[in-house]
Amino acid sequence: MRDAVLVLGLLVGTFFLLVIQEFIPPMEFLSGARVNLVPILFCFGALIVAFPWMLGLTVGIGLMVDLASLQVVGDSAEIALGWGIIFYLLIGLVCQGLRPLVLRGHWELHTLMSALTAILYPTLQFAMITLRRMEDGGLYYSDVVTWRILGPGILALFIAPIFWFGVTLSMSRHGGFQRVREV
Amino acid sequence: MKKVNIVLAVVVATLGLGLMLLLSGGAMRGAQSGFLSWLSPFLKGGAAVQQGIGAMGQGLKTLDQLEADNRRLTTENMELRASNQILRDMEVENNRLRAAVDFRERSMFRLIAARVITRDASTWWNTIKINRGFEDGVEAESTVITDIGIVGKTTTVSKNEAIVMLITDENCKIGAYAEGSREKGIVSGMRVQNAQEPELQMNFLSKNANLQPGQKVYSQGVGAVFPSGLLVGTVKSFRQRELDGQAILTPAVDFSTLSDAFVIVGEK
Question: Domains in chain B, start-ordered, CATH in brackets?
Fold first, then answer.
């Protein structure tokens, strides 16, 4: 029951986070990198809930992220619907492997996984659009690309601990996280 | 949890994912349109709050200032009405003369005003969202312009919003010509670039095109999306390549301050 409530909360949170992110301007000091806070929410859930609930969270968040960033050009999308789910599924599987450590108190793993996810997601997107546009402009790489990939990860390193302690503290007060640690 | 349930969850998730990856472009566009409709009230609310915060910084005006503004705008409105009337007369005359020389009648476009709700929402694509959707007559692949030049084209359209792919995106391609020459080429954005000073590339020009800085580039009207004669940008530089020439353009529209635009929804 606790997992169900947590997953539902994280899905609703992701929906509103996607709205909020629309209004956050790009970070010009990081060459226009975007703020991406969804990995922080996802990794939190994937590191805490049981495997089937992690799957549900993956499908929900992956689908929302895909729909929010889908670019349909002509009659096809550059990155088809579903790739976000595959990406978050792989991250979720790694998180499940780390889950016992996190439940024993290793909160720093959440920060590391959030930063890694925030870096890998734009990397995957860039790799896919580069492959698709190979005929148009060939390979392309610049410092701007580097910062746009690293930027969200750097930001996640700072925000993830605040999110972790904020939420776990709130859960502990209501008895939720205490029970998780006893598992 | 039982192993059977876990296996069931994995099977259902795999099947769903497989089906999703096989969706056509139209189906994906439909799904995104639905999602955009869900986001719509929150996006509009957020845009209103953002606008309100922005307006607070502009300060309050006195009654005298408002009266002066009103007088100035009324005069400007009258002038514009008068010049619009003259242009209408000229359009009629132009069409009559075109008909006389057997040209296809060329009518003015029907435009609807749109407000930019959000901008630059993704890392690798240059897009904005506007507050007009299919309820207002906007369709996918509609041209979006300002009084200065081309902004881009709509991709996904929901009930009351549309996603606009800007001309600074590499996927937005426009057949264009340079004024004062016979040079034609394809204009598109760059793959990744600084949003502060965006540039466009005009490819497939002849090697000897020798376009000069400041030369204006207009849409050619080939293809079904962009009508002809709309300003795309001005030439910044030109270089010869092995097989063709390439010009770098500065877009006509300033995307950093863009807040209002028009969508071409048909002809009058």
Answer: 61-106 (no CATH), 174-251 (2.40.10.350)
